């Protein structure tokens, strides 16, 4: 990872309504729907964003630039975000803020044990909660100065991002080479972000099913129904 701050830390002019102005966020997240929510939150906060959807892609990003903030999903297709958080927490110089993220709130302890400064539970929609999760851990002197009103705003990603995730879910559900635990985790996180309680419950059942279970085919049908509904309307 390059540690030349001149390349990545331009003049910052954080303001009360753009408290992350001038900062760069790397979000490591395999869900396009969740990534789009973070993009909207960063945009409203004044931050730039880059996205990696795997650990390998994150390492490629980090080899050429130094973000201020990393937000890493715990469940990724090629490993766990906890691995990346632990690696970055031990690096010198350390990045300003490391945040773990998951659709499973129980994984907060895993993220913090790996060295994360904080944790975001999906769905991440509240601008105030997003900003506070980062601002609370910025080094002294960074971020806006003086009191500021917390924004009363939420974001809702474009439905095309949800459609992309459901297409991907349908593909991996039907792929026996994909570990069942990852398939269930991805589908459950997408369902939670979309506030689809029935699909989230189905993802939990999938996590408990054996690899040869017919549950895969049944849940694939549910996902295809959701896709048909999105495309119809």
From TrEMBL:
Signal peptide positions on this chain: none
Domain of life (superkingdom): Bacteria
Indicate yes or no for the key word Iron. Answer: no
Q: Which residues cross the membrane?
A: none
Keyword Phosphoprotein (UniProt): yes
* Modified positions (4-aspartylphosphate) in chain numbering: 73
| InterPro entries per record | Bact_response_regulator (IPR050595), CheY-like_superfamily (IPR011006), Sig_transdc_resp-reg_receiver (IPR001789)
Response regulatory domain location: 24-137
What are the protein's UniProt keywords?
Phosphoprotein
- What is the protein name stated in its UniProt record? Response regulator
The root-end lineage is: Bacteria, Pseudomonadati, Pseudomonadota, Alphaproteobacteria, Rhodobacterales
């Amino acid at each position: 990872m390059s540690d030349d701050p001149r390349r990545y830390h331009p003049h910052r002019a954080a303001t009360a309504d753009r408290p992350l102005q001038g900062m760069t966020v790397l979000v490591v997240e395999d869900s396009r729907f969740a990534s789009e929510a973070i993009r909207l939150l960063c945009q409203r906060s004044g931050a730039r964003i880059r996205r990696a959807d795997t650990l390998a892609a994150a390492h490629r990003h980090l080899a050429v630039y130094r973000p201020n903030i990393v937000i890493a999903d715990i469940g990724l297709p090629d490993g766990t975000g906890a691995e990346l958080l632990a690696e970055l927490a031990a690096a010198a110089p350390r990045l300003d803020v490391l945040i773990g993220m998951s659709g499973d709130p129980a994984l907060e302890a895993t993220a913090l044990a790996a060295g994360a400064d904080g944790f975001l539970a999906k769905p991440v929609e509240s601008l105030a909660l997003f900003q506070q999760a980062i601002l609370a851990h910025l080094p002294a002197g960074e971020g806006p100065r003086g009191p500021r009103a917390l924004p009363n705003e939420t974001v809702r990603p474009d439905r095309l991002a949800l459609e992309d995730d459901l297409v991907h879910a349908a593909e991996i559900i039907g792929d026996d080479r994909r570990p069942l635990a990852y398939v269930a985790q991805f589908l459950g996180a997408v369902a939670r972000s979309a506030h689809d309680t029935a699909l989230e419950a189905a993802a939990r059942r999938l996590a408990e099913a054996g690899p040869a279970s017919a549950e895969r085919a049944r849940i694939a049908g549910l996902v295809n129904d959701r896709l048909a509904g999105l495309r119809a309307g």
